[in-house]
Amino acid sequence: MKRSARRIFNILTRCLLYFLLHASIANAQKADSLIVQDLRAERVTFSHNNSVTLLTDGQQKFDDLFKAIRQARESVHLEYFNFRNDSIARMLFELLIAKAREGVEIRALFDAFGNSSNNRPLKNYHLDSIRAAGIEIYKFDPITFPWINHVFSRDHRKIVVIDGRIAYTGGMNVADYYIKGTKVVGEWHDMHCRISGEEVNTLQRIFLKMWNKVAGQHVDESRYLNGGKDISYFRNLKPDECESRGNKMVGIINREPRVSNKIIRTFYLSAINRAQDSIKLINPYFTLNRGIKKALKRAAGRGVKVEIMLSVKSDIPLTPDCGFYNAYQLMKAGCAVWMYKPGFHHTKIITVDGNVCTVGSANLNSRSLSWDYEENAVIVDRCTTAQLDNLFDKEKADCFKLTSKSWNQWRNGWQKFKGWFAHLLAPFL
């Protein structure tokens, strides 16, 4: 009888160990696989043959981009919220004009509101001279009487596709303050990435769909879909240093009004709700919506290490006050909030469980979540995610941690009231 009982005990023990082992493996894979599953349910596609190179400041981005454009052979497609009429934009257009003279097709889009809202807009005479030099360039949604159309959807994407083989995306427009900073906020920090592989085709399709809509053309996409083809003629670009290069899983989430309205919200909610170990998040306009705010609180409540980085400084009024109010509420709910001091962090990233990350154009405000054209690259890769995690951890040295004490030292009564009032306006910020 004792021998039989011992045998049953041993069998049950092995079964329990087997279950625990496989449960831990399943949990380790759960966040990334379920995030992908959630996005595939929204018709987001993923490919597995990509490389992703992170460009962690303006100098890196523009150096790399200019080198790649100089080596273009067939086409350069650019879609930006704005081209600020300054030294970087002038250098870019001079380069594009030279490539157009070589026979390279140049197509450029920019948002009309994005152009008029910056302090160095492209004027009509600038556009005339650019077009006369062989570049096709169009405004998205030109501002017309009664001048309210820009209140609605804007093209906030940042996409460059070269020869259909490599693509750039992220948070940076074309402006010299990404390198030089500004008097108001000092240093301007942001993030971009370069992608090669099949997912370049998705970015190319996004661009050409918008191009045909805005330009009234019918450009056939088939000859521009070269993602995954030879890129060896692009030399001296910043390398993807991961061993997984060429084999990274990447998908593009593309917010298009009336087509994929909820996709940015779906991704962030999935990423936060599926997280089991850690979340690191940097976003400049942290007005949030109720669903994302609740998800972050729940994540902290179930033991996920939630870390958020916001800038003390900002380039616009009121919106940051709302973000500070939200940060304080999340800090009280158990999130670790780091307030970045040296300049303005315009970066828009999230990392989850060391396995999944995103780089793109979408803020966590009502415009990006509910109104504008946006796109983000979702990268399912441990090495790329670690690079962003390391960046986050490194920049904590330039932050102060938000606590009840530091909150009261930093924000006076009037500022706290402004934050409370601003959070009531979050659906409009």
TrEMBL record:
Residues 1-28 form the signal peptide. Its main location: membrane. Residues 151-178, 341-368 form the PLD phosphodiesterase domain. Keywords: Cell membrane, Membrane, Repeat, Signal, Transferase, Transmembrane, Transmembrane helix. InterPro entries: Cardiolipin_synthase, PLD-like_dom, PLipase_D/transphosphatidylase. It holds the Pfam family PLDc_2. SMART domains: PLDc (SM00155). This is Cardiolipin synthase. It comes from Prevotella illustrans.
